[in-house]
Specification:
By secondary structure, this protein is of the alpha/beta class. The chain has three helices and seven strands. The chain folds into two domains: 2-46, no CATH class; 49-141, no CATH class. The chain has a six-stranded parallel β-barrel.
Length: 142
């Protein structure tokens, strides 16, 4: 398989005048560089839909314990509930609530007591109001 690829590139890129082929000599390095260039894109893609959440029934199954506060000033994150999955944000407070656990990127448990929660949220009425108040808690939703 590898020799077929090399042969293909030899026929396309071989420099008949110089009798050398720099591209072929650096082919493994180019593959490595290409793979390294793709890695951040793959990581970015995996985090792009981090705001698809599922509400767990049991605390032990949840990734994050959440408490809904009464006032925006008490929240770590202001959350806007999106109606469509395609509008789910990139860890910016725009949440889409999944019906099935397997479709969600984050599983949350709604705490009864503020002191037990990892994250305090406040639901906002407008998408533009959504966002982090306490940036130090952002890691919880990645």
């Amino acid at each position: 398989m590898h020799s077929d690829i090399v042969d293909h590139f030899k026929t396309i890129y071989f420099d008949h005048n110089k009798k050398s082929n720099i591209f072929i000599k650096n082919y493994p390095m180019k593959k490595l560089l290409f793979a390294m260039a793709l890695m951040p894109l793959l990581f970015f893609h995996s985090t792009i839909k981090a705001q698809k959440v599922f509400i767990e029934q049991y605390e032990s199954n949840a990734d994050v314990k959440v408490y809904v506060v009464q006032y925006a000033s008490d929240a770590d994150l202001k959350v806007y509930k999106e109606q469509y999955e395609s509008n789910a944000g990139q860890n910016d407070g725009k949440w889409f609530f999944e019906e099935y656990e397997s479709n969600a990127k984050k599983k949350i448990f709604l705490e009864q007591y503020e002191s037990n929660a990892d994250l305090k949220i406040y639901f906002v009425d407008y998408e533009s109001d959504a966002g982090w108040v306490n940036d130090s808690k952002k890691y919880l939703m990645y």
